[in-house]
Design a protein that fits this description.
alpha/beta, TIM Barrel, seven-stranded parallel β-sheet, 10 helices, 7 strands, disordered C terminus
Length: about 260
């Protein structure tokens, strides 16, 4: 099993003007990610607009990702879906094409009870042998599980070896997870707002769409933090804030069109 640790950008899905998928554009993005020195990548996640893709498109594009990466870095394939049946099918496909892990968040169309969410994760875990990343995302797509609920899922489903915690305050939640998690938890990633705070809190790296735009810079933040140069890391990170703000503003603008 490859080590899943470091900077894992979420790869965007490029679309043409007619809303069809731009496969050549995707290959170009993947080449860029590899050049930046990212430690791995995630696809197709929320920032990839997986919800705008058909099941067939998700499978085809995931195959392109595996083909282009050629095993150079770990690939996490997102299998989140409205139903257990679809998520299970996507998980089986991810394993068959050579993914290193699958990422899954609780059902996002009809919000379920905790017992329903627990059953959802268990049934998908039974469909493949890959490590699972539990994505704990906030609304509107995510169900924003409490830290206690995430810990309970970790205790009952040891195949969940990683967590991507995206709810605020991100750093505090990551620290709490890391302190109380079972030995089966190998790492906690941050997303959304917790990039620098999470690294300081001891997490394993960030994974988000905005990281795709600044992978080389965020790599420097993580490297300096890991090597004990916290002030340098903080200074680099603070210089990226304006860039990240512009990126989020543009994404919000595009999503409103």
């Amino acid at each position: 099993m490859k080590e899943i640790r470091g900077i894992f950008p979420v790869v965007a899905t490029p679309f043409k003007h007619d809303a069809s998928v731009d496969e050549t554009g995707l290959r170009n993005i993947l080449h860029y990610v590899l050049k930046t020195g990212a430690h791995g990548l995630t696809f197709p996640a929320v920032a990839s607009e997986f919800y705008a893709l058909s099941e067939g498109e998700r499978k085809k594009l995931s195959e392109i990702v595996i083909e282009e990466v050629q095993g150079k870095i770990p690939v996490i394939i997102t299998v989140s879906a409205p139903s257990t049946t679809i998520a299970s099918d996507l998980a089986r496909h991810a394993q068959s094409i050579g993914a290193d892990a699958v990422m899954l968040m609780a059902p996002y169309v009809v919000k379920d009870s905790f017992s329903g969410i627990q059953s959802y994760f268990k049934r998908v875990a039974e469909c493949c042998d890959l490590p699972m990343v539990l994505q704990n995302a906030p609304a509107p797509l995510g169900s924003a599980q409490t830290v206690e609920a995430v810990l309970q899922l970790l205790q009952t489903i040891p195949q969940i070896m990683y967590v991507k915690e995206e709810n605020m305050p991100c750093g505090q939640r990551i620290s709490k997870l890391s302190d109380k998690a079972p030995e089966s938890l190998l790492g906690v990633f941050g997303g959304a707002g917790g990039r620098f705070a999470g690294v300081v809190a001891g997490r394993d790296g960030p994974s988000s769409g905005i990281i795709l735009k600044a992978s080389a810079i965020i790599n420097k933040v993580r490297a300096n933090t890991v090597e004990g140069r916290a002030i340098t890391a903080k200074n680099i990170f603070e210089h990226t804030l304006s860039f990240c703000k512009i990126g989020y503003s543009y994404e919000n603008y595009v999503s409103s069109l």
